[in-house]
Structure formats: C-alpha cells, structure tokens
TrEMBL record:
It comes from Sesamum angolense. Heme binds at C280. One of its GO terms (cellular component) is membrane. Belongs to the cytochrome P450 family. The keyword Iron applies. One of its GO terms (biological process) is brassinosteroid biosynthetic process. It is found in: Membrane. This is Beta-amyrin 28-monooxygenase.
C-alpha cells in the first residue's frame, strides 16, 4: 500500500473526530485555523509519523515562527521576527535530528517519507542524504504544504457557502459514497476516485483562489513570446491570476462553476501547482487532503459563515481571509444521510 493510500483513512479518522468535537462544542470556529492544524498534523504524520499532540503543537508553533521570519527584515536581534524564526529553525532541526538518530540506531522504524530518505544510506556516497539535507527536505515540504493546503480548504468552504447549488450537488455525491459504505467506515483512497464532482470543486477552488499568485522563472535563452522579446537571464514572473481569470479561456471567470472542468483546458491554462520541472511536489497530497475534508464536511454537516467580511490578510504571501472564515456546524439529520 503506498503512503497516500495509508494516509487517507488515517486522515479521515482524525478529521472526523475533530469535526465531531467542534460540532459538540457548538461554537463558531475559524476554518483557517482548523485547516492549518489538520494540514500540519497530516503532513507531519505522512513525513515523519509524529502523532504525539504536544510534539505536533510545538513543531507547528516553531514552523509558524519560521514562515513569519521569511517575510521579515533579516535583523538578528533578540525579539525581532527574523531572530525568532532563526531560533525556531534551530529547535526544529534539533527535534528532527534526534528522530533521525533514533531511526539510524534502530530504536524506531516507520514506513514513512523520513524512512525512505534514510534508506538511501545504503546508496553510493553521492546519492546518500546527510542529516542536514534530510531535515531541509522535511522543512521544505512542511512549509510548502501546510499554508497552501489550509488556504485552499478555507476558500473551498467560502465558495461553497456562496454557491449553495454547487454545495448541494457536492453533498449529494458525497452522501452517495457514504451510503455505499458500511456505517462508520473510513474513506479509502479508492473512494476518492468516485468523487468526480468533488474533484472539479477542488479544481475550481484552486483556479479562483490562486493560492500561489505567481511564481518566478529565469529565461535560459533569448526568446520571443507573442511579440515580446525576453532576454537570457531575465526574471519572468508567471502570473497565475491573469491566466486563471482570462475570459478567453474561462467563460464568466468570476463565477464559481466546477462544471466548467467537464471540458478539457488548453495547455498551460490551469496552473495552480505550477508546471514544468519545478511543478509542486505535493499535488496528490493536497488534492487528497482537500477531497477528504470536503467529504467529511458536506456529508456530515451544513454550516453558516459567521463573518461575511471579505478583507484579505495584509502582509501574507498567500491570499487568505482576514476573518479566517469563521463557521458554525450543524449536523445533517439522519434522514438526509440514509435517503437515496
Ligand atoms: C493546495 C495546495 C498547494 C498548492 C496550490 C501548491 C502550489 C505550488 C506551486 C504553484 C508551486 C511552484 C511550482 C512551480 O514553480 O512551477 C509549488 C511548489 C512546491 N510545492 Fe506545492 N502546493 C500545494 C501543496 C503542497 C503540498 C501539500 C506539498 C508537500 C507536502 C507541497 C510541496 C511543494 C514543494 C516541495 C514545491 C517546490 C518544488 C520545486 O521547486 O521543485 N505543495 N507548489
């Protein structure tokens, strides 16, 4: 069984329990905060099998310091954001190195991404990864994966709230999947294959939310594109927003319409994960996380958005609602679940 297949039921169980706790609590909660936590814990589990709640909290705390520092002035003075980020990075490195040592000493074994990097110990010297490289890979994946996936989930909830017909159609698809499984069964990877409308909801969310607004490239040679001369060495920013909102490609581009993906897109007209050799490494993980989330949310609950303010966070590198999209959950009644 590959790691994504193992991830699906584990993530589903964890998510179901957390949603149930929020439902029982009955209070409004910020989807962004919630999705940051579930995305973080999910990625850490997949990469390192860390599931201990207090370790995860500490790691997430430190990752937040590191990501904050990435947008700050590089002042190495105690109290400065940059300095705090550097200190947090040192603690993260220490925690991950301790884990690597345990694995190398055989005190701990797990079938995860970290273990697959350690298996390279038996490779020729130039293909092995040293501790620094392993830790760097872990930090890169966690940082690249958490806030992107979490923001996408938040936008999905918001778009579905604004588009009740889409929400109803999605719920019906997800309830059908629930009805075809024994009561209380967890999702399997194969179940995601039946989420054809869900996948289009995910695609449309990523088109409209533009989690990464643009990404940079360097021209390797002189070239001319549509009459524009680009010189070797120039920095070129690929503007995903312009591409995703181009009315020639996407009719009525401001409308949240997952069904537009019934048709094939022109090459390079859909690039939420980039394209080419530097394409996002977490595409599958991101899509799977979003689909499982949508399944549990729509097949178990309806919700109200408790703050309609559309202001975006300032100083964030990813577009996110300042409100964090607070919602209150209401459990679907059993008849909606069992009726086919
Ligand atoms: C909805 C969620 C996500 C979105 C929208 C997203 C988007 C992107 C984009 C646009 C790039 C740049 C691609 C390019 O330059 O062509 C990228 C790179 C990357 N992403 Fe993601 N990503 C998401 C989730 C994840 C997850 C879950 C992981 C890992 C767990 C991840 C790991 C990476 C890594 C490592 C890179 C750098 C790849 C490289 O430079 O070779 N991403 N992502």
């Amino acid at each position: 069984m590959n790691s994504i297949s193992k991830f699906v039921p584990k993530f589903d169980r964890e998510l179901s329990e957390r949603l149930k706790r929020l439902e029982n609590n009955g209070k409004s909660f910020r989807v962004l905060e919630f999705s940051m936590k579930v995305a973080f814990d999910g990625i850490c589990d997949m990469l390192t099998s860390i599931t201990d709640a207090s370790t995860l909290d500490q790691l997430e705390h430190d990752i937040t310091y590191v990501t904050d520092a990435m947008l700050s002035f590089p002042l190495k003075i105690p109290g400065a954001r940059y300095y705090r980020g550097m200190k947090a990075r040192e603690r993260l490195i220490e925690t991950f190195k301790a884990k690597i040592t345990k694995r190398r000493n055989g005190e701990e074994v797990s079938d995860d991404f970290l273990q697959s990097m350690l298996q390279r110990d038996s490779y020729p010297p130039n293909e092995k990864l040293d501790d620094e490289e392993i830790v760097d890979n872990l930090l890169t994946l966690i940082i690249a994966g958490q806030s992107t996936t979490a923001a996408a989930i938040m936008w999905c909830v918001k778009f579905l709230d604004e588009n009740k017909q889409v929400q109803d159609r999605l719920r019906e698809e997800q309830l059908q999947i629930l009805r075809n499984k024994p009561a209380g069964a967890l999702l399997k990877y194969e179940d995601l294959m039946s989420m054809s409308y869900g996948s289009k909801v995910v695609k449309e969310t990523l088109r409209m939310s533009n989690v990464l607004l643009w990404y940079p490239r360097v021209a390797l040679d002189n070239c001319t594109i549509e009459g524009y001369e680009i010189k070797k060495g120039w920095n070129v920013n690929i503007d995903a927003t312009q591409i995703h909102y181009d009315p020639d490609t996407y009719k009525d581009p401001m409308r949240f319409n997952p069904s537009r993906f019934d048709e094939m897109q022109k090459p390079y007209s859909y690039i939420p994960f980039g394209s080419g050799p530097r394409t996002c490494l977490g595409i599958n993980m991101a899509k799977v996380t979003m689909l499982v989330f949508l399944h549990r949310l729509t097949s178990g609950y309806t919700w109200t958005v408790d703050d309609e303010d559309l202001s975006l966070e300032r100083k964030a590198h990813i577009p996110r609602l300042q409100s964090g999209c607070p919602i209150t959950l209401t459990r679907l009644d059993d008849t909606s679940i069992t009726n086919s």
